[in-house]
Amino acid sequence: MRRRILITGASAGIGAALARVYAETGWDLILTARREAVLSTLADQIRADHGIDVVVIPDDLADPEAPRRLVRAIAARGLTVDGLINNAGFSRTTGFLATDPARHAAMVQVMLSAPVALSRLLLPGMVERGFGRIINVASLAGQMPATGGDTLYGPIKSFLIKASQGLWLETRGTGVHVTALCPGYTLTEFHDVNGSREQVSSAYPAWMWQTADHVARVAHAACEADRPRVTPGLMNNVLAALGKLLPDGLALRMVAGHARRLKRI
Predict the structure, then answer these.
(1) Which of 5, 21, 190, 195 is the most exposed place for a label (fewest CB within 10 A)?
(2) Considering only CA atoms, which of 42, 55, 48 is closest in space to residue 4?
(3) What digits encode the pLDDT tens for the residues 42-74?
(4) 169-191 burial: b if 16+ Cβ within 10 Å, else e
(5) What percent of the chain has pLDDT over 90?
(6) Left if phi > 0, otherwise alpha if psi is -120 to 50, otherwise beta: which for 9?
(7) Is the dihedral of CA 185, 186, 187, 188 positive or negative?
(8) pTM (predicted TM-score)
C-alpha cells in the first residue's frame, strides 16, 4: 500500500532532504511552501529519481487560514495523508524590541500555531486508519535555557518538543508515531535567510555542523522506531544534557556568551 506524506517548508534545507529520504523509502509526497517554482523543480527531480507521485500545493503558513485551506486542497484531490512533517520555520535575530511585532506574530503562526492546526486536522484520520507518522522539526535550541537576540525561537521549539511528547503519549498503541526532531547547526540556507551566515560560520568549527541529509535520515529512522524525540549528533546531545544539568545562572551566562559570539546581544 502506497503511503503519502505532507511536508511543510519543503522547498529547501531539512524539508527538501526529508522529502528525498521519504521518496527513497517509497512514500508519495505532498510538498508545500511559499516558493512554487522551487517546489516544482524539487518535485520534478524527485519524480525523475524515484518514480513516485509528488503533488505541489504552494501556500503561506503565516496566514492563519492556511492549514485548513491546505487540507481542503488535499481532500479536493482525493488524497489521503498518512504522514505529516511540520518543518516550515525561520528566525529573527535582530532582538525582541527591534523586530516588528507583525514579524513576531508570523513566526508564532508558522512555527507553533500551524503545526498544531495541521496535526489536529490530520491526526484523527491517521488514528482511524491505524497508521500515521508525524515529525515536528524542533531544534537543539528548544532544549537550551534561552536564545538571546532570537528570543522567541527557543521557546517555540520547546513548545514543539513538549507537544510532540504529549502526542506520542496520546497515540500509543494506535499505529501513529510522533517524533520531535531537534537538530543543531545544519548546513542549509536557514542562516542565509536570517542574515546570520557570517556570524555562525565564524563562531563555530566545521565539526559542529551536520548535513541536512544526515539529519533527515536520523529523523526518518527515529520516527519509524517510534522515538518521541531525537537529537542528531553526539555533541548536540552533550549540549542538551548540559542545558538540563547546569544551574540556571551558569547556563544563562553560557548562552549569553553564545549570543555575543553571534553578535545578537
Answers:
(1) 195
(2) 55
(3) 999 999 999 999 999 999 999 999 999 999 999
(4) eebeeeebbbbbbbbbbbebebb
(5) 70
(6) left
(7) negative
(8) 0.91
3-state secondary structure of 136: strand
Which residue of the set 22, 153, 185, 204 is catalytic? Answer: 153
Residue 187 contacts residue 208 (beta carbons within 8 Å): no
Cα distance between residue 215 and residue 211, in whole Å? 6
Cβ-contact 182, 206 below 8 angstroms: no
* Secondary structure element (H or E) that encloses residue 5, with its range: strand 4-8
CA distance 198 to 217: 27
pLDDT at 197: 42
The dihedrals phi and psi of 58, each to the nearest 5 degrees, come to: -70, 140
Q: Annotated catalytic, 204? A: no
Which residue is listed with cell 519543503? Answer: 10
What digits encode the pLDDT tens for the residues 90-117? 878 788 888 999 999 999 999 999 999 9
Residue 137 corresponds to which cell in the numbers above? 522539526
Q: How far apart are CA 3 and CA 22, in angstroms?
A: 10
